[in-house]
TrEMBL record:
The keyword Transmembrane applies. It comes from Nonomuraea maheshkhaliensis. This is ATP synthase subunit a. It is a multi-pass membrane protein. The gene is atpB_1. Its main location: membrane. It is found in: Cell membrane; Membrane. The lineage of its organism: Bacteria, Bacillati, Actinomycetota, Actinomycetes, Streptosporangiales. Belongs to the ATPase A chain family. Key component of the proton channel; it plays a direct role in the translocation of protons across the membrane.
Length: 264
């Protein structure tokens, strides 16, 4: 497993950069794709499956322990994500939406786990694959339930819009539904996790350098400030990590609903 070196010069502090996101294969001479982010993603999947198994494999009438945690997550996703978007179809899609929410949440939380400290979604390939999967489900549902023509008509049709205006409106709404929505789904998650990881690493590097590598009376204050800011930004990042998991799952629910209902 590759350890990223933030300090590249023995005499000068260097801010962390894109090297934080570059990883060599875990096994020397092994598969190029088997890097730290892949290992963390696999570990995240195991964690999600283990939590769900512990919570729901043998449910009790009075929930305790993992079951209480699992039911809280289930109710949150059902009431805040599934039902507002899918209405009467919410229960049918709870398995997918709960899995998406928990997977993205664990991916994000890996950024603050000691020794791991890398949010999987900060590597754009992972949220992109998840978003493309939801996108494929949306298109499949739209065509299956409405046919190609009916699906496109449901997207483009806007009551009260003059016929001549469709020449402008139709291309824009079709681009939003079939292109922009896909990219915004995963880019929002990726950008937030990428930026958050950089910011926390920056302040951590400042604190480490001025308190341990080059401790001086003048630099000590800056080092303490770096440590305090790293703590504050980590706490803020926890909030962002939960919020981004919620938004990603909420958009997934909205896209699935658009396929079912044949509208934008």
């Amino acid at each position: 497993m590759r350890t990223t070196i933030l300090i590249t010069s023995p005499d000068q502090w260097t801010a962390p950069g894109l090297d934080l996101f570059q990883f060599a294969p875990i096994i020397p001479g092994g598969p190029e794709w088997f890097t730290k982010p892949v290992l963390i993603a696999l570990l995240s999947s195991v964690i999600v499956m283990a939590v769900c198994w512990a919570a729901f494999a043998k449910p009790k009438v009075v929930p305790r322990g993992w079951q209480s945690l699992g039911e809280y997550a289930y109710v949150f996703v059902r009431d805040q994500i599934a039902r507002p978007s899918l209405g009467k179809d919410a229960d049918r899609w709870m398995g997918l939406l709960l899995t998406v929410f928990l997977t993205v949440l664990v991916w994000n939380l890996m950024g603050v786990v000691p020794l791991v400290q890398f949010p999987v979604a900060a590597h754009i390939a992972f949220p992109a694959v998840l978003a493309i999967s939801v996108y494929g489900i949306k298109l499949y549902l739209g065509v299956r339930h409405h046919g190609v023509r009916g699906y496109l008509r449901g997207i483009v049709h806007l009551p009260g819009l003059p016929g001549w205006a469709y020449a402008l409106y139709a291309p824009m709404i079709l681009a939003e539904v079939f292109l922009t929505s896909l990219f915004t789904h995963f880019v929002r998650l990726f950008a937030n996790m990428f930026a958050g990881h950089i910011i926390v690493a920056f302040f951590s590097s400042v604190g480490f350098w001025f308190l341990f590598e080059r401790l001086t009376p003048l630099g000590a204050g800056l080092g303490v400030l770096g440590v305090l800011m790293a703590i504050v930004m980590t706490a803020f990042e926890l909030l962002v990590q939960f919020l981004q998991a919620f938004l990603f799952a909420m958009l997934a629910g909205m896209f699935i609903a658009s396929g079912l209902h044949g509208s934008h």
